[in-house]
Amino acid sequence: IDLLKNVEAVQAILGPLRSGEADFIANLGEKIHVPVISFTATSPSLSPAKQPYFIRAAQNDVAQIGAIVSIVKLYGWREVVPIYEDNDFGSGMIPFLADALQQIDVKVASRSVLPTDCSNSFIKAELYRLMTMQTRVFVVHVTPSFGARLFLSVHELDMMSSDYVWIVTNGVGNLLGSMNSTVISAMQGVLGVRTYVPESAKRADFVARWSRQFRLDNPDVETTPELDVFGLWSYDTIQALAFAVEKTNSRKFKFQQVQLGNLNSTDVESLRISRTGRQLLNEMLRTNEVGLSGEFSFANGELQSNRFEVVNVIGKGERVVGVWTPQTGLSSQPVEGKPGRANLSTVVWPGDPGAVPKGWVVPTNGNKLRIGVPYKTGFNEFLQVRTDPATNKTTVRGYCIDVFEAVVNVLPYSLSYEFIPFTDEHGKSGGTYDQLVDQVILG
């Protein structure tokens, strides 16, 4: 606000880091007609449709939902539990994810909402709760720093084992390269979605020059960090903004002092409205370049980028096992044109690397389905109740039981049940069918 108030050269606001920060600044930019451009604020809670001077130079989190849902559909999982941070970034995407899962008849069995500043003990307590459920497919939408804490706790509680499925959104997927070796070791078998960035000579040359400069500036740092997609977006954004400024043909940007009304700050009230901001905004929105991150253009204030890679955390890093686009769907190989049969390359899963998790287990705290079985003599092939006099153990068998158990075995979820023979204290018939129904009603 101080810069906007006292420095007339401010023509655009670049880079609000978090969605919450960007929301405030986008509202401010709208009031004073100064474009606000962010290459890190990805939450759909921010909308250029509602804040016309806001430009998102990054992927909207909603864009990746198709890739996540395609993974769930490919493996036939029927229930999912989203785990996310309780902030604008974490909660913004979840309603869209739930709706998309519902479209393919996948149930959101529960939601795990974790405060950003919660303790590790809080995280573990929530993980213990999730362990008592039958669902074992978790979609994790958190920031990288929170993700590191979460997966270290997951590993400590032995939840990175067979039967578990962990899918991370690009909040973590885009920055796997920045995770330390301890965290990567704890994430073995995780599937992730990340932004697809095409290889190019321009990008390779820039990364090489950037790496050399980093080593010169930081001689004591042993490992050169990976230049992630946010770094590429930042470069492309600044370059696009520079071109837009040139195209406005205005050597001196003009501002007009007006009364903005009550925005809960006397400093804000004294700000000036840019008289050339609309022109600069329009030039920025007309950007259509091939940058370091690939095609760099906007539609309705949003970066047009909807291609993703599916990665699998293995060994010391991650391996690409597929790509997804809205046009071609999920595929193990980059393809153009019509969609084909959905597939991924071989995935290494947690615990048992070669076995695709079924996505559920028998819950540790669930109630069993109690099935009343009439005790009748005759037609033993159809239904028979027998009690072993030596062990006093009762068994139920017959055609009815075989059909029931065959159906249960093909259900895409766990069903815990027990047969309750309708007998008296002497092991004889407990009564008629009507009396059995009465007992079922009475519980």
UniProtKB/TrEMBL annotation:
Tagged with keyword Ribosomal protein: no
Record's protein name: Receptor ligand binding region domain-containing protein
UniProt entry keywords in alphabetical sequence: Membrane, Transmembrane, Transmembrane helix
Domain Receptor ligand binding region: 2-315
Main location: membrane
Residues forming coiled coils: none
GO cellular component, one term: membrane
Localization per record: Membrane
